[in-house]
Specification:
251 residues; 10 helices
Length: 251
């Protein structure tokens, strides 16, 4: 088990933020977790430690949002997500991390600028669409496999639908629970689960669960309009963070 106190100083707040984002808002703020933990250990090891914790968090989130998810969207999202996982597993060792973050951050910021400055109003809603759903869910599965950063692409697809906030979060919870458990297979084949990583994951799992409980509480207490404004704000923060991380690696 990792004993470096600096690691836990980064990992504990990262997991709390991830859990609150996951169960409270269903948005991309969780992308802060792996980069923050990776300040103290290699990024691939950070991703490996995170995955078992995410799987435990998923069980709690599934219970909290049982029955509250969009079946229509899930029929569209799961095939795309699976394709993204396969592509991510095949390219895990070869991806340019900086380029991936720049691309993902630019997509998120571009989407928000189009919503804020273009013809699309934040009050308008869209419907589930196979073409868009397959694309964004595949990108989500891909970036989730590489760095647990699947939130922004999925937010881009789901947020404009203006679903009830519990339905929105529940849909992301179910999608990423399935994605995370499938990811166990490629992570195992890639040899990312050693005894040290697994022991560290077990020790940090309660922190992730606390984040889930806090997220559910936030979702229940925040009004619908404020909830969606926060979701878009968190997506903006995630996009800017991705851009910053990617560009800083190139400079």
């Amino acid at each position: 088990m990792i004993t470096d106190p600096l690691f836990y100083a980064a990992a504990i707040p990262a997991l709390l933020v991830f859990g609150i984002s996951k169960a409270g808002f269903g948005t991309g703020l969780g992308i802060l977790a792996v980069p923050l933990i990776a300040l103290t250990i290699p990024a691939s090891q950070a991703a490996a430690i995170m995955l078992p914790i995410l799987c435990v968090m998923d069980l709690a989130a599934l219970w909290a949002y049982r029955g509250q998810w969009s079946r229509e969207n899930m029929k569209i999202m799961l095939p795309g997500g699976f394709a993204g996982i396969v592509l991510g597993a095949l390219t895990f060792r070869y991806v340019n991390e900086a380029g991936l973050k720049i691309m993902l951050g630019a997509i998120a910021i571009g989407f928000l600028l189009q919503r804020w400055l273009g013809k699309a109003s934040l009050a308008e809603s869209t419907k589930p669409a196979p073409g868009k759903g397959y694309f964004w869910s595949a990108l989500s599965g891909y970036t989730s496999t590489l760095a647990h950063a699947g939130g922004p692409p999925m937010s881009i697809y789901l947020l404009p639908q203006k679903m009830d906030k519990a339905l929105l979060v529940g849909t992301t919870v179910v999608f990423f629970a399935i994605v995370n458990y499938i990811k166990i297979i490629p992570y195992t084949l890639l040899g990312l689960f050693d005894s040290s990583n697994l022991a560290t994951s077990a020790g940090l799992a309660p922190v992730g669960l606390l984040g889930i409980f806090c997220g559910v509480w936030f979702r229940k207490t925040i009004p619908e309009l404020l909830f969606y404004r926060l979701c878009y704000a968190f997506l903006f923060v995630a996009g800017m963070k991705l851009l910053y991380d990617g560009l800083s690696k190139l400079i």
